[in-house]
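User: Hi! I'm working on a homework problem where we have to compare a predicted structure to a textbook description. Could you give me the structure for the chain below?
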Amino acid sequence: MKKITILSIALLIFAVTLEYPKLGLQLRAIGQTATPQPQTPQLQTPQTPTPQPKADDPKNLGYVSPEFAEKFSQQQIDQINANVETLLITQSCARCDLRAVKLVNIRLKNAIVTGADLSDANLSGSTFEISDFVNTNLARADLSGAQLIGARISNTNLRKANLTGTNLDGADLRFSDLRDANLSNTNLRNANIDGASLDRASMAGTTMPDGRKNQ
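Assistant: Happy to help. Predicted structure tokens:
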């Protein structure tokens, strides 16, 4: 009887020994289970969009000819547009940056653009009666068909300008640079061209100051 009791106790101890590691693992698993924490709602801060620079889109160039857009920054384009507005409102914009502007068929009288930069400008068909272009840069400008009657254009850079069919009757062109300009069918009647440089200028059909017409 005593042997049976001892054997029973030994078997019980053995069984407990086998079950103890499992119990320890379960207890550890319970201890590692995270207790759910209440969630604090996060406030979303509205994002302010970053201003984007204006693209040099020809549609946004205002008075600047699209073919010259790549030469200018948007800041320069904005300044040129502002200068044109000043000229149109006040008839004056001395020493202004007016490069590559497109002012076709406009009409100004007694306009003052002394010392302005109008290089590559398109002023075709426009009327600038008795206007002041002294010391102005009109290199490569398109003045074809323009009316510049009595205009003051002395000491002006007109190199490679297109003056085809331009009316310069009575204009003052003294000491102006007209080299390589196109003066075909231009009216220079009564114009003062003393000291003007006309080297390589095209003058077919040009009416000279004395009324003589070139062949």
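For your comparison, note the following. The beta strands are 107-109, 127-129. The first strand starts at residue 107 and ends at 109. Good luck with the assignment!
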